Records
---
Amino acid sequence: MSAVVAAIASPGAEEIFRILTFRAGYNTSAVIIGAIMLGVAAGAIGVFALLRGRALMGDALSHATLPGVAGGFLLGTWMGFDPRSMPVLLTGATVTGVLGVLTVLFISRHTRLREDAAIGIVLSVFFGAGVVLMQVIARLDIGNRGGLQQFIYGQTAAMQGRDAMVLALLAVLVLLVSLAFLKEFRVVCFNAEYARAQGWPVGVIDIIMMTFVVLVTVVGLQMVGLILVVAMIVIPAAAARFWTDRLFVMLLTAAVLGGFSGYAGGAASAMAGGLPAGAVIVLASGGVFLLSMFFAPARGVVAGVVRTKRVHDRTNRQHLLRMLLEADEVGDAEGLTRTGVRSRRAWPGRSLGRAIRQLRSGGAIDVDPSGGLELTTTGREQAARVTRNHRLWEEYLVRHADIAPSHVDWSADLVEHVLSSEMVRQLEESVAARGGALPPSVHPLTGDPETAQG
Amino acid sequence: MNSTFFIQYDVPALAAATCAAVSCALLGNFLLLRRLSLMGDAISHAVLPGIVVAFLLVGSRATLPVVAGAAIAGVVVTVAVEFLCRLGRVDPGASMGVAFSVLFALGVVLLEQTAASHIDLDADCVLYGQLEDIAWLGPEGWGDAFSWGHLQNLPREVLTLVSVGIVVVLFITIFFKELRITSFDPDLASTLGFRPGWMHYAMMILVSIAVVASFEAVGSIQVIAMLICPPATARLLTDRLHVQLWLSVACAVLSSVGGYMVAAHVPALVVGPGTPSLDAAGTMTVTSGVLLGLTIVFSPWHGLVARHVRRFMTAVRIEREDLLAMLYRLEEVHSAGDGETPRDMSKVQIIEALRGDRGGPGLAIRVALRGALRRGEIMGASGRFGLTEAGRRRAQGIIRMHRLWEHYLVHELGLRPDHVHRTAMALEHVTSRAMQDELETAGGEVATDPHDRPIPDPVPGDERPS
């Protein structure tokens, strides 16, 4: 690891700045721009692959191109072309790549094997066939042959300006097609059955989508290698999923995250001379993914934890308010202390302390010197609202769900906190709200939890 | 080929490849049942950083540290996939994609550092294996092969793979019950007090060990193929787990031996003597794929051919029943006094009528016609076909079923009388014995169907296929 650190630390600040601003020489800039463009294209198309549940299709596809590349090379040699000419190799790669995808679809549709097994079968068997052909090539006495290792790890660092141009065109094309077919792709990704019932040509749309996955994979492969292409299709899209629930936003996010990964990875590998650019780009996208997973505000892990905590807090505050109000109703409020509160309900961990602190700072309760908890006027209003929800729901359960009155308290406990105001209004109507602000409880209220809970 | 060369080169290579294939195939069965087949793919990519780190720490290619490193990496990727799935709510496929590609990239970056440190660790050897380089230098003939002295000198790869194979077989034998229940129904397993989580991790550790032990000999691609193809082949042949395990072992052995033969002999046969052999790991992979392909097509129960034959036989039976019912209805019209309608039809009329608006070559109809003739249910005279007495009895049962269904659909399910004919047409062919009894109780006393046509009496001894 120390070598990595040393390699990264070696260029001066000025050099780093030049790399980041595309002024560190023609080749370095071409590599960085190419990586950005590939990230944009793969990120955008990856969104649809991910949402269609085919994230790993790119994996099968990219392995399946190997026999095509080798076969194209052999066929080209035999027919007297220059076997290294790109059109020959790309055609071969596309043919076997598409064949691989069709095989996956065939196996998962017509046998009892699942799609994941089908992907594994196709990627290993096709790749095995490719390995055999590659070895034949290696034994034939042809000079100037494409190295297998470069195919797998890619030659990102050898990218030329022309390659970057091709990738830029690809990125623009993918974005244009994604936007043009956004509606079609959306309906097929989210509900293919519904789309078919509505008369959408699901098969054709699927094929258009997969065609672009193939295109990105095949073009990306020979520039950056097998694993990087798979990673660039899966990772930015999966990361973008944390940021939003809207398809259009997700598409743009994935393209931006993919592009950023390419930029960061390409630049980092340029700074640390010896590191393989493809792998560094994948690591960069992995970093972007982790950051998104934890810190994205919409679906990130941290945001989720905070949300859960808030709901728990609110639930606990409401429980405490209702308990105080009900104790008041039966004339038992005098001297209801923490111990009393705990004897009526389980309060895991420090939840009771938090609830009391939050209610006090919200001005809903007072604590008298002897430790007794008392509702303030505002607190009483809030408590009435909470209790009302609880009792309405209890009534509903007793009347419409046929649950015994002695059993509803607990069921109502679970739902009362998530009732929408619309639902409350409906409950009021269906229970035919009576005179007072607060419907009476359907079960006896006493200070003794044994009888209160039945 | 002389026996010395065979024992020194072919035997150890075959032994290594077969052990690797069998260990992977056995474990692969459980991956396949848990829909974790791609975990094999993910693990075989993700062990790379584990191997490289072990390598950097120890500084040699000693087996034990490398296997330990791979096992740790296997656990890391398993935990990572689970973590992404549960905590991040990422789609399982995508979780694997993210986890293994990042770990693989990490491995590649670290590998560059080993190159910088002048340690010999070749990425090619991980990808393709070096089956051809395994040699057992020592024994000169079969007599020597079983002497203790020579057995001790077996190549390291063979010894490693044999021990891994033994561990895998022991694990599966000892925990067969636990593996079976956690694979088929993890929820039931938890309620019964088994620990699906522990089995899952034990499984993944074993997969990582088998994967990395096999790398050196056969390479990662064959490992992935052996984790998936033989179990998939076996799964298409049987519904019983222990049969599936044995079949997958057989298929793994067949793939490795067959693949080795292909690699050694096919080039000489096709191109001419003296041609160098093919890449054995690659041909083994392709052989396992070919075996799977053949099974997909020809498997006796789940195969495509068998399924199509079954479907065709059903189509023929339905067409025959429709033919008899059609001739019965014709006789009804005929005997109702309409003298112009004949009691029989020509072959062309029959095919036209049964084909309806479906089109197609009507192959099933022709076969059905021949079948009805052979059974003596219809007979032909001067190119026209009519019911025999036996055929009339058979047809009476079919028509009775049809009209009972129509009665049931109208009176019990409340469908409109002009909507039930097609439904009854379909149902009359697939009515089980129990359903038939139900229909008899619902409409047995009724004389006519909703279209006022008589429901024929039951035919004694008319057994309908269920």
---
Amino acid sequence: MLYASFLFDLILSIALVVLGMITLQQKTPREAVVQLMIFGLLVALSWIRIDAPDLALTEAAIGSGVTGALLLAALRRLGLNQRFPDPAPAAIRLPVTLGCAALGFLLSVILIQSWDEPAGLTDIVYQNIEFSGSANPVTAVILNFRAFDTLLEIGVLLVAALSVYTLSGPAGGTPVRPPGPIFNLYLRWMTPVFWLVTLYMVWIGGRAPGGAFQAGALLSGLGALTLLGPSPWPMRLRRRVVRWGLTLGFGLFLFAAAWLWRYGNLLTYPQNHAKTWILIIEIACTLSIGISLTVMFAGCAGWLHEDPEAAA
Amino acid sequence: MIAPPWLLSLPVIFPLILGVFTLLIPAHTLKQAGKTGAVATAVTTLPCLQWVWQAGPLHQTLGGWGAPLGIDLYLDGLSCLFLLFAALTGLGISFYATEYFPRSAEGHRSRTDLFWPLWFVTWGGINSLFLTLDLFNIYVTLELISIAGTGLILIAGTRGAIRAALQYQMQALIAGLVYLLGVGLVYNALGTLDLQLIAAELTPSPMILTGLALMVTGLIIKAALFPVHFWLPPAHADAPAPVSAVLSGLVVTVAYVIVFRLWFAGFHTIAPNLVPRLMGVLGAVGIVWGGILALRQERLKRVLAYSTVSQVGYLFLVFSLTLDSPAAEGLVWAGTVYMAVAHGLAKSAAFLAAGCLQKTEGSDTLTALRGAALRQPAAVIVLALASINLIGLPPSTGFIGKWMLLKASFYTRQWGIAFVILGGGLLAAAYLFRVFEVLMNPPDRAAAPDTAKPPLPLSRGILFPAMLLALATLIPVLYITAPEELLRIGAPVSFSRFITPGAAQ
């Protein structure tokens, strides 16, 4: 049994390296993106192998799914059949390759040589988890012990979506090919399912792998599908509405931070109410993450225009 | 005395709230909100000053958990001085920006309106980086300000700005990942991310040393030390003027301050001597290289951007200067802080003035600016005041800092470094005088018959904040004991000698 799992890990590791090399060798950006998405799925698999299902979920949803969709949308706008420009001269490629190889080698040697049980904070997390308002250690860390990090991380997403906004050009992006009846039917049936799974994802994050980032990524999947569908209603939303949606998560998180100063230092939840606070923040963040990623998708596809408010 | 729970997090959270606020309010109220918000943000740092002055360093645990489980903030004289520096610079940049960007029509938001949310979020991130003790939190915050920085560059909307923003984002990504890799190794070895806990347990094991090396490398890219400075000139030169001031005056300084704090918190005890020597040599080469390239630029903002590469070099001399002589440690340490503050203030002021010249003359190429001193005397005066600092002439803060470094390099008999410090000053004089020569000479009528451009209307008060920043660099000369005493509070080095210039003889 041990032998089998070792063999599996070995194959997985080799596959990761080989797939990485294949991705770099592709002739066209589209092929490279597809390879990258497969690469992301294998990375997600390796997170499962080291018992990090939360990371695996996020990696599959964001690292492979959302990133792939964003890149493909951007490529579609630039012209799908583009080829990579001429490769950089060997004078640049060679030192970069050697540098990366040397760093990889150095890291492997160090990690293998001086590996004993990593100190980590696992014990102290489990000692405090009952006061954290979450039975899932990952959620406890993200939304309680290190909530300040997550607050800034949500800010990163908002700022990234705003940066895409700054690039929105004049109206008239590439028209979308009318979707077929099968897609329309699929979208109609799947929309409630997407919402259900998103809400479940947020809720279950309190006990098992799940949470705002995974749920938000899922929601943005629905957002992208809706944009591709027969009635892309998010496109017709006023910019002001979109801005409120984008800031909901960060704004509520900041409000909580300011409100909670009365109980102690930044983001100290009141005793016995931590779970409620965490859930409210997570729901707001899920919506904002979903909207941010959808805006980025629309921006990559060239569908963000500078009009609506003046017109409305 | 018990510190109020919001004391250290207020300067971080308040600008972030303003970032959200300025995104949601109607566009025509933005300028008023920008000014009021900037004043209020600057005021939030004053309670920190009062506390550190009266009660000394302060440690606060976010969420009430405390390291190693939670994230801690820490205030000492150094972080307080830099908070005040960011407050002053931020105030100047904000007031300038209200005049620089065109006013939006009611009910319509334009691209430049996004300056305000992005800038306030950046300000909050900068304040957070001065205070945080958590290595991973530093990573998150660096990401926040580099993505906001990308958005800020993109506001210009030009082709050059888009290219510069992409380059900026690439370096930020690579630098961030290298830093994060280092943090991962250190965490793996020591099981904590808190700087003070880490400093207490540092041992020169291969894993920790590699981790520290990677962290420092990532931060050095962000601080644009030679030879990883290549991303800086296009990004800083092609952004709108207030953004150039943010990036060159504040963001580069922040990246440097993190290296500085990590180093003196304990990295210097285990790093092999080769590392500080190398950083010193790279700094010295950067001073000369940046200066020579600044001399060859044809655009004012490019000159200033390469000047940043050169000035950052001075800040890295500290690592090799403190190596040999513990007695001069305090001198070098404080001198470097003065250099960093002087450069931040002066370079912001210079970029703001350059922005005015660029707007009124239609371009910032040196040929277009010929004789601009006649048409825009105020902008040229601000540029001149900033230059006094960049060259290191008395009576500026830049001079005090440079003088301290010079004294220390004589004291420790590092003649090479002394030579570079003096030569770097001459080089700065050369590339700045070259600019002034152009600015002050009347246009050559034979060569360019129609240089008379209709002046663009700029509000009269636009240069006032820039002037204030440039003048602020003269404060320490009038009253040196206050910043010096502030710096001593909780300082990681010993001040065995009195550090005011002249007093130690």
